[in-house]
User: Which sequence fits this backbone?
């Protein structure tokens, strides 16, 4: 009986709530168009995409400390701390804006492909990769010089990317329900694999030490083992996710869901399981994680009432003016 009780207590502890909750909000204001958010933990800066600008936030002070303006439909932001540079994809102009991390001054705008979305810095090769969502390809750029090296095919409707720090890059392919591996030095796809039952993958996170990828789709997270390139787990998550995160300090994987939840996944008795679902805000689908404080930052806004359906199409609730903000979660 004592043994059974001990097993039950261990199981209960493993599936207990992780303690995450909404701590505060950081007001951004202005219009309510946004996409990615990126955290520079070393320099304590949070970069928030905001229509045709990037708001630079001090996450510790909870305030805006700068703005990178004059952009063209911002999507992704990548940080190269070792080079003191940042990179922003412009979906409307098909380009990548390079800026200085200290001064925020723009220093270049190399051309990418059609509608560049995600962007990742690969530190071993010192290259930046713009993932061109509409073009179905990726553009490799020398992060030191800003020179465009090559644009090569990856697959239609490519989404988030992650670098392993050792010369490889991974990208979700939304249209084919796949994840692909890119050799950064060769500028080419070297492996691809189905991640079904994860359909239409968007967000992607990586556990470099355990060599695992976390792709998120409606209702399911696909965990892919990098050495074998096979899906090893499919824990359930919320609906409408757009981003994923992994915290190496806690071993937790996250999915930010448009249904107003944050799903938390971790290894339990050798299996990846969903261990908590935290209430956030409607539409809070993109996220960034601070691996120093273990806080999570979600982009959100307040919405007005949903208008009635018209011509057979469901109405969309409008974003309320000046309500755009960063939602801060932690313990």
Assistant:
């Amino acid at each position: 009986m004592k043994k059974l009780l001990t097993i039950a207590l261990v199981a209960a502890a493993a599936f207990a709530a992780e303690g995450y909750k909404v701590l505060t909000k950081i007001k951004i204001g202005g219009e309510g168009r946004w996409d990615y958010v990126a955290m520079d933990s070393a320099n304590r800066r949070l970069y928030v995409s905001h229509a045709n600008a990037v708001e630079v936030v001090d996450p510790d002070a909870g305030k805006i400390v700068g703005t990178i303006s004059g952009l063209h439909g911002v999507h992704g932001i990548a940080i190269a701390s070792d080079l003191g540079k940042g990179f922003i994809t412009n979906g409307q102009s098909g380009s990548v804006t390079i800026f200085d991390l200290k001064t925020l001054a723009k220093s270049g705008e190399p051309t990418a492909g059609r509608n560049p979305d995600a962007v990742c810095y690969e530190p071993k090769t010192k290259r930046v990769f713009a993932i061109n969502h509409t073009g179905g390809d990726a553009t490799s750029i020398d992060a030191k010089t800003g020179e465009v090296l090559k644009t090569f095919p990856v697959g239609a409707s490519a989404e988030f990317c992650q670098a392993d720090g050792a010369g490889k890059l991974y990208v979700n392919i939304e249209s084919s329900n796949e994840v692909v591996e890119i050799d950064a030095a060769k500028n080419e796809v070297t492996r691809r694999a189905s991640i079904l039952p994860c359909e239409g993958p968007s967000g992607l996170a990586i556990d470099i030490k355990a060599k695992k990828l976390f792709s998120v789709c409606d209702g399911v997270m696909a965990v892919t083992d990098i050495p074998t390139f096979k899906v090893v787990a499919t824990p359930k998550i919320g609906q409408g996710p757009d981003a994923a995160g992994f915290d190496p300090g806690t071993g937790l994987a996250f999915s930010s869901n448009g249904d107003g939840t944050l799903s938390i996944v971790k290894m339990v008795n050798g299996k990846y399981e969903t261990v908590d679902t935290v209430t956030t805000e409607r539409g809070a689908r993109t996220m960034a994680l601070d691996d120093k404080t273990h806080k999570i930052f979600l982009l959100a806004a307040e919405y007005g009432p949903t208008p009635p359906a018209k011509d057979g199409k469901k109405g969309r609730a409008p974003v309320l003016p000046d309500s755009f903000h960063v939602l801060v979660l932690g313990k």
Helices lie at 2-14. Residues 1-15 have pLDDT under 50 and may be disordered. The chain is about 5% helix and 50% strand. The radius of gyration is 20 Å.
